[in-house]
Amino acid sequence: MSKNVEALFAAAKDAFANAYAPYSHFPVGAALLTPEGEIFSGCNVENAAYPQGACAEAGAISAMARAGRRRIAEVVVVGGGGGLCTPCGGCRQRLREFASADTPIHIAGPEGVKASFTLAQLLPESFGPENLG
Ligand code: THU
User: Is residue 34 within 6 Å of ligand 1 at its C-beta?
Assistant: First the structure.
């Protein structure tokens, strides 16, 4: 693991530990690195009114925007289960707003990174701010 991925993994795992997921029992943590070298993290926060739950990636993006940062250089998502906890469709689009086609998105379990993708692999032929002219 690169130093950046190590630090992102640690932050995502820390967020994972604070996830509020009493309904799905599926905690998720996400961490974003900005080009400035800062890391922002988030966890999923579910709700008794199920559709009001928020994904970990959304929380991390919110923290980043609150700090005045507008670009995402690298991402780590930590989730449980045997499979890959890849971002949901909505979160791929949320990441798309601030990341580039080649931004690495690493998918991890609590033990470490399992797979790595670029944003373009997860969201090909995407629509973004440039499309609005
Ligand atoms: N979830 C995330 O927070 N991020 C992902 O990348 C995939 C899914 C959350 C949403 C919900 O709280 C729980 O995981 C189960 O879908």
Answer: no
Phi-psi region of 80 (alpha: psi -120 to 50; beta: other; left: phi over 0): beta
Predicted confidence at residue 97, as pLDDT, reads: 98
Contact 50, 21 (CB under 8 A): no
Domain that holds residue 106: 3-132
What is the distance in A from the centroid of ligand 1 to the CA of 15? Answer: 13
Catalytic: 57? Answer: yes
For 49-60, the pLDDT digits (tens) are 999 999 999 999
- What is the structure's pLDDT at 34? 98
Mean residue pLDDT across the chain: 98
Task: Work out how many domains the chain is built from and give that number.
Answer: 1
Q: Is 56 in the pocket of ligand 1 (CB under 6 A)?
A: yes
Ligand 1 atom closest to Cα of 56?
A: 3
pTM higher than 0.85 for the full model?
Answer: yes
CATH number of the domain where residue 53 is located: 3.40.140.10
DSSP 83: S
Distance from C-alpha of 20 to C-alpha of 36, rounded to nearest angstrom: 29
28 in ligand 1 pocket by Cβ < 6 Å?
A: yes
